[in-house]
Amino acid sequence: MTSTNPAEPQRQLVVVSNRLPVDRVTDPDGTVRWQTSPGGLVTAMEPVVRDLGCLWVGWPGNVDEQIEPFEHETLRLHPITLSTEEHEGYYEGLSNSTFWPLYHDLIATPDYHRPWWDHYLTVNQRFADVVAEQAPEGAIVWVHDYQLQLVPGMLREVRPDLTIAFFLHIPFPARRLFGQLPWRRQIIEGLLGADVIGFQRVQDALSFRWAAEHYADAHANGNLIVVPETADEPARAVLAQEFPISIDTESLESLAADPAVRARAKEIREELGNPRKLLLGVDRLDYTKGIRHRLKAFAELLGEGDVKAGEAVMVQVASPSRERVEAYKRLKSEVEGTVGQINGQHGTIGWSPVVYLHRGFPRSEMVALYLAADVVVVTALRDGMNLVAKEYVACRDDEHGVLVLSEFAGAADEMTDALLVNPHDIDGLKSSFLRAMHMPAAEQQRRMSALRHQVKEYDVAHWANSFLRAVNHAADERERLGRGSDEDGGSRIPAPVFIPTSLDSALRRFASEPNIIVACDFDGTLAPIARRPKDARILPRAEEALSALQGADGVHIALISGRSLDSLRATGVRTDGRVLSGSHGVELTGVPASSNPGNDPLSDEESSMLRRLLRRLRRVFGDEPGVRIEEKAFGVAVHTREVRNDQRSDELLAAAVELGSDEGFDARNGKRVREFTVRHSDKGRALQAIREQLAAPILFFGDDVTDEDAFEALGPDDIGVRVGDGETAAAERVPSPEAVAAALARLAELRTGVVIGAS
Ligand code: GDG
After folding, report:
1. Ligand 1: nearest atom to the Cα of 247
2. Residue nearest to atom 30 of ligand 1 (CA)
3. How far apart, in whole angstroms, are the C-alpha atoms of residue 675 and residue 665?
């Protein structure tokens, strides 16, 4: 994999996790050595730190043992000692018998045991103390997972020079569930000690932001949480956002291409008696993984004769996990009992329907299993991400094989071409297993090829780079503020703003006008383009700058979008007190009514034209994967951002234009969207209407073809700024939404004196 972006400043990295990424093994000849340990966290982080090198602080795996720091490949490892009692309270207790079940939707009942909390505090403090002592000045400290949620807060108190990041590998519980936790305030405050908090899914980040507002004295503004100032510290911003983790796709692909591994895959099938279908499950033996559910479904298929003797084998790799925790002991005996029952009842002398392997295997053996499997079953009842799902498709360059994937695994957000299942619905599981076992080759190929595209594009390098980019931004900002306090006795100095000098001077002039209108397009301008429009979010820095400007005298903020206002609001962008123009100017709120083309309801003729078009578009594109048809107040839009292939997207859009023109509509072109409106308006007319009402010069930012109407409507006192490439009528240009945020921050600073840092 590629390491972090070379453009990023090189800061020293310290990784902190409950377990060190290595296990100690003693060879038969008595030699002791360390080898990389299995598990999701290590699998994901290993390729990240392999290139970067780092200091890694963690527990080495045995209690009451003091081990000196040592080196392993590019890592410097600093072991933390835990006593038997601490291990029971902090790890087996609070981490695995409280947080784990609570954060996984109460699949098991969490115990809230106060002495465990005391151990959790002591051990988190020990980790924080070691990091505080070992971390180089100005380093980035990346803390992992639910066992160490207090470390960011503890660390910040003693080492304010560090930039602290936290990544939660498991889900963050829904609002009311988290509310059960007796120590909910302490946990939120501990996490808010970080500068950046990463989650697996959008939903996790949303739940956390809600909890931060309700259980700590914080205020969420989009994905930025503002922690109010205290006696010791000024107010701070914490980025809380989803960064879905992934796998080292390239290295798995090359392992899967290794002839020895391929030969082993063939051998595995032979050893299993060459069944027609091989189903595979790979999990830590954990009650969240839904192993019992999948066995039950498979057993019923055998019992009902849908799977015949000798026809299929289910291989279940269940690597040992948390073996001293009561719930895991119970699960182990239940699973083993069920496997025995199934094999006893349905097996024959030469055929065991379930092959259960309760141990760890080398990576090459796992890959051989993936290659041998016709179907991989991931039936987690709740899972942060689930890397097994991604690993399976990464290995299948033959584009064959079927992934059955639980809707409750984080991976389901991205891997929509899998056979998605609700593991609680045993009948549904049975149908999906059958469907997977009998899926025609062409459908397997279509699905697998789309899934592979996904894991190739969004691999672990992408995950680490985007996370570390956000953390480096936070670090830049800390440095900048630090410099400010040395030079200016604590005052904040302006952010380094990478905007063209001509725009900077235009902004200076503009900022001194008595009244101003700051108008921005949304997608591609305030918010980076997202693959699914519903996932687009305003950049925190842009939101902060707009909010600061909005609070200043004589400033009007306008959001001018092609989206309908409903869809704009659904992105969570702040809309109160702002002028809003949606559907390319057809909808307009926040200014007195006069020239708003959206004030009159649709005429009968307009609505029947629109209905006809909508019906035809739905009929033609309704089932087309990746195409989204958006109904708007006065029109309809056909989006193809999720169509995976550019050529296919172009064809579909061209077909939509044909259909529209047949119905008498002209299409408006956007990036991977064609829009048809029954009532004519555009962003230029919207801006004119706004100016007529507010009588002030305009600063307008836009990135799309449809924003050109707005640029053309600007006068000599206005400023038009085009985002990105392409021909334009705008006088100024910036490269990206990040640069728009920087320019807005600059304007906010000029107008109000408030400095909006990079985030
Ligand atoms: C947590 C979250 C999230 C398993 N057995 C063997 C083995 N493995 C490897 C798999 C895979 C990893 O372990 C398991 O990762 P998962 O993601 O499936 O699950 P968790 O361990 O629960 O991980 C999870 C993850 O963190 C990352 O953030 O996705 O939601 O619960 O890579 O292949 N590897 C080898 N031998 C085995 O026997 N070599």
Report:
1. 32
2. 384
3. 9
Q: How many angstroms does the Cα of residue 746 sit away from the middle of ligand 1?
A: 45
- What structural domains and CATH numbers belong to the chain? 5-81+126-242 (3.40.50.2000), 249-457 (3.40.50.2000), 501-596+681-752 (3.40.50.1000), 604-677 (3.30.70)
- DSSP letters, 116-168, are HHHHHHHHHHHHHHHHHHHSPTT-EEEEESGGGTTHHHHHHHH-TTSEEEEE-
How far does the centroid of ligand 1 lie from the alpha carbon of residue 182, in Å?
30
Q: How far is the CA of 319 from the centre of ligand 1 (A)?
A: 9
Instruction: Tell me which residues have their CB closer than 6 angstroms to ligand 1.
Output: 38-41, 43-44, 169-170, 245, 282, 284, 317, 319, 360-363, 366, 383-388, 391
* Beta-ladder partners of 556: 517
Contact 376, 368 (CB under 8 A): no
Could you report the per-residue pLDDT of 448-481, keeping only the tens digit for each?
Answer: 999 999 999 999 989 998 999 999 999 988 877 7
Q: Whose CA is nearest to atom 7 of ligand 1?
A: 38
Which ligand 1 atom sits nearest the alpha carbon of residue 410? 30
- Among 139-143, 335-339, 526-530, which stretch is predicted with the lowest mean pLDDT? 526-530
Query: Which residue owns the Cα nearest ligand 1 atom 9?
Result: 39
Q: Whose CA is nearest to atom 22 of ligand 1?
A: 40
- 18, 286, 386: residue to mutate for ligand 1 pocket, most atoms within 8 A of CB: 386
Separation of alpha carbons 545 and 540, rounded Å: 9
Among 248, 284, 390, which residue has the most ligand 1 atoms within 8 Å of its CB, making it the best to mutate?
A: 284
Q: Which of 176-190, 262-276, 340-354, 604-618 has the lowest mean pLDDT?
A: 604-618
Count CA atoms within 13 Å of residue 561 on its CB side: 28
Diameter of the chain measured on Cα atoms = 90
22, 41, 43, 382: which to mutate for ligand 1, most atoms within 8 A of CB?
Answer: 43
Residue 390 CA to ligand 1 center (angstroms) comes to: 11
181-240 confidence digits (pLDDT tens): 999 999 999 999 999 999 999 899 999 999 999 999 888 877 889 888 777 777 888 999
Cα-to-centroid distance, 593 and ligand 1 (Å): 58
Q: Which tokens in the block code for residue 492?
A: 């904040």
Residue carrying the six token digits 């045993």:
426
Q: Where are the beta strands (DSSP E) in 180-328?
A: 196-199, 219-221, 224-227, 236-242, 277-284, 312-319
Question: How far apart (Å, rounded) are the C-alpha atoms in residues 689 and 519?
Answer: 13
* Crossing angle between the packed helical segments 737-752 and 540-550, to the nearest 10 degrees: 30
Amino acid at 388: V
Spatial contact of 568 and 585, defined as CB atoms under 8 Å apart: no
- Cα–Cα distance measured from residue 629 to residue 663, given in angstroms and rounded to the nearest whole number: 16
Query: What separation in Å is there between the alpha carbon of 580 and the centre of ligand 1?
Result: 46
Assess contact for 191 and 231: CB atoms under 8 A.
no
Residue nearest to atom 27 of ligand 1 (CA): 40
Residue nearest to atom 13 of ligand 1 (CA): 39
Give counts: helices (H), strands (E), the chain.
Answer: 25, 29
> Backbone phi, then psi, for 125, in 5-degree steps?
-65, -35
- Residue 667 has a pLDDT of 85
- CA separation for the pair 317, 743 (Å, rounded): 54
Q: Which atom of ligand 1 is nearest to the CA of 286?
A: 22
Closest CA to 192 of 245, 149, 131: 149
Which of these, 426, 395, 416, lies nearest to 434 by C-alpha position? 426
CB atoms within 10 A of CB 113: 15
Helix runs in 529-603, H state only? 540-550, 565-570
Using the mean position of ligand 1's atoms as its centre, give its distance from the Cα of residue 387 in Å. 6
